[in-house]
Design brief:
- The chain has 336 residues and is mostly beta strands.
- It folds into two domains: 1-38; 57-335, Neuraminidase (6 Propeller), CATH 2.120.10.
- The protein contains one helix and 33 strands.
- The strands form nine sheets. Strands 3, 4, 6, 7 and 8 form a five-stranded antiparallel β-sheet that branches.
């Protein structure tokens, strides 16, 4: 072979190789655009869902009813018992009942609360039930602990009277916030310390909110919707154990008096009021992706009741329906 023929052949092939590389780059770009269209939220970003529905489907079943119809009730779970505290009766009166609702059985004999109350907040920790605030004619600063089967302990009053507030457990501490006093929504978040019987300000919500739904998952408490000074909110706000807050997603609608619970690492939001009307819509919120998806409906429009997450599913207790105050109990599970 004559000298130089190898280098001349290499030069002849260089344009062909460059063309192949360009074609492959265009193909890869087209594939990427097909899989990840513009505007789709990245993992962990806030946004409304475009993700396909989960293979698991929502199932809502009616359970044994409460012993009386109530709305604005507070509830929490200890073991296999859901404790339902206070609420407004069908006659519009505050209840003084603390009702043990046995999972799989129904309500037992109620215990009398020290005072009548509705719109309080409830949480359980260390074998006790904690009740904060609420109201009867005005908002209350009262706080108490209940040790089953019947012992009440008076706690230090809240720093300010509050009703329509929320409470939960983060990092082994009781955390509470939101609510209102004489119509002014509250933004402050406190932790309550059982050993010292004291409160500590740990943060503030981005916007003062009452009547929000809440759920605790992976060391974050999520405050969902609620009523602000400007009206209902669509925001989903993450609250950390240190009191840090961040708006992480939005519902497709502004809603208040909804309720929320946790199933298989996802948060489900039930009913509430939208533009003044009751709704039956169920949304699923995935904290890992920030996606919000409508996944079903309750059997009827529902709001202003309590939601409790248990190993047997989410229980919705009491509330308001189209016909008035409810004694209805729903159990929400996932089926495949």
């Amino acid at each position: 072979m004559p000298r130089g023929s190898s280098s001349q052949s290499s030069r002849r092939f260089r344009p062909a190789r460059l063309l192949i590389v360009l074609v492959l780059a265009v193909v890869l770009l087209l594939v990427r655009q097909a899989l990840f269209p513009a505007g789709r939220p990245a993992a962990g970003a806030s946004g409304k869902s475009t993700a396909p529905p989960s293979a698991a489907k929502i199932q809502v079943s009616v359970q044994s009813p409460l012993s009386q119809a109530v709305s604005g009730d507070a509830a929490t779970v200890l073991g296999q018992t859901i404790w339902v505290a206070g609420g407004l009766t069908a006659q519009g009166l505050s209840s003084n009942s603390l009702v043990p609702y046995q999972i799989g059985t129904g309500p037992g004999n109620s215990v009398a609360l020290p005072e009548r109350v509705h719109d309080a907040a409830a949480a359980s920790l260390g074998g006790q039930i904690f009740l904060f605030g609420g109201g009867r004619f005005t908002s209350s600063a009262r706080a108490m602990a209940f040790t089953p089967p019947g012992q009440f302990t008076t706690l230090l009053n809240l720093p300010t009277p509050l009703s329509d507030l929320w409470a939960g457990v983060l990092g082994g501490q009781l955390v509470l916030g939101g609510g209102h006093n004489t119509g002014a929504p509250n933004s402050t978040i406190w932790s309550y310390h059982r050993v010292t019987n004291s409160y500590q300000v740990i943060g503030a919500l981005p916007v003062a909110t009452r009547y929000a739904a809440t759920a605790v998952l992976s060391q974050h408490l999520y405050v969902i919707g609620g009523e602000t000074a400007r009206g209902a909110s669509p925001d989903i706000i993450s609250v950390g154990a240190s009191g840090s807050t961040k708006v992480v997603a939005e519902l497709p609608v502004s809603v208040w008096k909804a309720a929320a619970g946790v199933l298989q690492g996802q948060i489900y939001i039930f009913g509430g009021k939208v533009s003044g009307a009751l709704t039956s819509t169920i949304y699923r919120f995935d904290p890992a992706t920030g996606q919000v998806t409508a996944v079903g409906h309750l059997p009827a429009p529902w709001a202003y009741g309590a939601a409790v997450s248990t190993v047997s599913g989410i229980y919705l207790l009491g509330g308001e329906g189209s016909g008035g105050t409810l004694a209805t109990v729903y159990r929400v599970t996932l089926v495949r």
